[in-house]
Specification:
176 residues; mainly alpha; 74% helix
Amino acid sequence: MHRYEDNAEELNLPPSKTKIKQQMHDLQDIGEQLVELSIDKLKQMDLPERLFDAVREMKRINKFGAQRRQMQYIGRLMREVEPAPIIAKLEAWSGKSHQHIAWLHQLERWRDRLLENDAALTELLADHPEADAQRLRALVRNAIKEKELAKPPKNYREIFQVLREILPEPTSQAPE
């Protein structure tokens, strides 16, 4: 004998009140994450004007009851927008996106290859001719010296920053 939930899916019944309530709480949680962002990052989110204004207003409210009501309002406004692109951007900014993490690992592998093999720099410059070859060579040479002399890895870290500029992060396409 099937359980009720299994039958509900088979009969294409609407979602239960519990499921709807959970979805509303999830949207409100996303709204809370939006409230914690700076105004500059909020502008990058490309939010609808009403939602943007509500989030900005929430930053000014300091009484608990008013904050709770404002968060409920933000949650209600979140139901009118597609949350997937917002979630993807929040995850990327927090470093949780698999694509973002993979990109960071790719940069780390490039840095390690540059320090181990001279041919790696030639390959990188062939793929990205806009890169500053002279600066990269100096950074690699200095990073190797730092490691030999057991100095702080200043140039090692700077190589990573230069690679971030050279190798752009792939943009994720939100499902439509």
